[in-house]
């Protein structure tokens, strides 16, 4: 009987212990639930800081290039034209403003970055010479630029695309820019597998070359 009574005390103790465990688990879960939003808030704050620093970097670069009168190039984009009497017309190379060429990047006055794309000049395309197909395509590009609203002799960039500067796109790193830790990096070239280098010194070096090109 005493053994049975003692067994009952042990069972009661065990039952009390089992009853205490859920409370401890609930408390741990509550702590974790509170910690998770705090971590997410910290991550959002970091993302906002990085985005702000990138925007400030691009604005400083624009200011430097504007104050020094660095050479700009035209930014263009082909646009389809409305048919006349059912006849198809060649697309026109529309003027999209001015950009600075900084290595593998184009920077506009609003602080937006673009890929480099293709280049032509707004010059008289000359006569058809029946050369290679590639040469004739380049002549068509020159004619489109010459017939557009660009200044004569201007360098025109086309076939470009604006580079996404939002943090998710930078973290994905599938384009010309990538984010590693807190550092925004740029690819050395457009070739697959090109290496990465920090964006800030890259822009500083390219801006310096544009402001004071070597003799």
Set out the fold topology:
Blueprint: H1 2-68, E1 73-79, E2 92-102, E3 105-108, E4 113-115, E5 118-121, H2 133-147, E6 155-158, H3 167-172, E7 177-180, E8 183-187, E9 196-198, H4 199-211
Parallel strand pairs: 1-6
Antiparallel strand pairs: 1-2, 2-3, 3-4, 5-6, 7-8, 8-9
Helix pairs in contact: 1-4
Characteristic terms for this protein:
single chain; alpha+beta; six-stranded mixed β-sheet; disordered N terminus; 215 residues
What does this structure look like?
This protein is α+β, with helices and mostly antiparallel strands. The protein contains four helices and nine strands. The strands form two sheets. Strands 4-3-2-1-6-5 form a six-stranded mixed β-sheet. Strands 7-8-9 form a three-stranded antiparallel β-sheet. α1 runs parallel beside α4. The longest helix has 67 residues, at 2-68. The relative contact order is 0.13. The model is unreliable at 1-19 (pLDDT under 50).
Entry summary:
By secondary structure, this protein is α+β, with helices and mostly antiparallel strands.
| Class derived from helix and strand content | alpha+beta
The pLDDT mean sits at 84
Strand order of the largest sheet: 4-3-2-1-6-5
Q: What is the rounded distance between the termini? A: 107 Å
Bin the strand percentage.
Answer: 15-25%
The strand count comes to 9
**Radius of gyration in whole Å, from Cα?**
31 Å
Low-pLDDT segments, ≥5 res: 1-19
Largest sheet: 6 strands, mixed
Number of helices: 4
What order do the SSEs take from the amino end to the carboxyl end, as H and E? HEEEEEHEHEEEH
Q: What fraction, in percent, of the residue positions are helical? A: 40-55%
Overall body shape: elongated
